[in-house]
Amino acid sequence: MQSVSEGEELIPDFNEYVQTRIAKVERLKEQGKNPYENRVRRDLSIADFRDRHANLLNGGDRDENAVFYLVGRVKLLRVMGKAAFATIEDQSGSTQLFLSLNDLGESYNELKKLIDVGDIVQASGYGFVTKTGELSLHIKSIEILTKSIRPLPEKFHGVQDIELRSRQRYLDLIMNPSARENFILRSKIISTIRGFFEKNGFLEVETPMLHPIPGGANAKPFITRHNALNVNRYLRIAPELYLKRLIAGGFEAIYELNRNFRNEGMDSTHNPEFTTIEFYWAYKTYEDLIKLTEKLFAELSATLKINEVNFKGQTIRLKTPFARYSYDEALTKIGGIDSAALNDREKLVAISKQNAIEIKKDRSIGAIKAELFDVFVEGKLIDPTFIVDFPIEVSPLARRSDQNPEIADRFELFIGGYEIANGFSELNDPIDQFERFKAQVAAKEAGDEEGMYMDEDYVTALSYGMPPTAGEGIGIDRLVMILLGFDAIREVLLFPAMKPERTKE
Questions:
Q1: Number of structural domains the chain divides into
Q2: What is the pTM assigned to this prediction?
């Protein structure tokens, strides 16, 4: 039997309230009851109970012989001498319980001493409507299934602090039903996306999380050690190069919906581990991906029953087709950059200096454009907008345009001022790919921490022949943020990365 002193060590912030509840745990044990019971009877969810008894709210007759067992957490408790009211909640909803000395006998007096807000209970009874018109369960029996030894926060204020809610998500979910609903919607969005790709003939695959060479994106990786092989491994920054190996191997339409990891900064839209979907489609082009992406958003809108969302105080319209600009058009029409400067490095550098944008000496015209795009264009792309014809210098894995070798057959989708998707016709020329890897390695050696590594095995795969292919990645976390109207990524992550509260010595 655990003593109170042992409890003090196990429970941080031990106080008299916790001590009182631990004493109740001991009291239940003395009565031969298990305060952490495993045997449960549950006939209906609370939502089903309310649906089944909806007729009572319209004047129907109650049936005292129709006894049902419900389970849930006590969220509210009012004891008034010989009677008490409690509100219990499960994932589906909440309902009121009515307990009385007349129904429960002497066990009522003992129960009211032992039960607390936060406890999880099993209750049986029949449905009825109180004088105030509230559908309730008239209790015939009630049992504590799980004793809560830490008091919940005050009911009417709940848990509002985003730091606490993110750090103790379990408490957020207990106190804020809307938080549970948001994560249910996130799951629904992901399920819809999976269903969409399966309906369109894509096969879900799984590729490694531990990579011998980090690749598929310009990003700084996390490094770990594989003891059995005695080598370093990298948590994947993207699954792209493995997925394209599968296309080279003969698969024609595949996707992977899973986590990526990038050892970079954290802010309102970045978490070091994040969820994406990447999909690859043989014998298609980036133009086909644009059409497919619009179809996906149409399906998401229909599933969620929304045509527009409010994000950061701005209304975003999800109606397709989405707006579309070339990279240069966006810089001039949206960013206000003089079109005469677009192909003049000196003028682009001058514009950058005027706006306090630091440009390294070796930056190409395309790379400088990318810096200007981030500052002058991206934040203004509120309604869904496709940007196409990216500079080839910032597209190391994309196919060159047949019409203009200085640009890539690539697009990005922006919504709410953020990049949501990135897609392109894939580079399948092994010689061109090898040269671009070499350029990335040179950039890394010159100090670019996000430069790509050489991946000779991937070049080998391409050398056997990869069919014409289009590939795309969509950031799931940002997508959910926008669809649900949140401006912080931690609101849509069950367990976001958090700075430690304190460092243990």
A1: 2
A2: 0.89
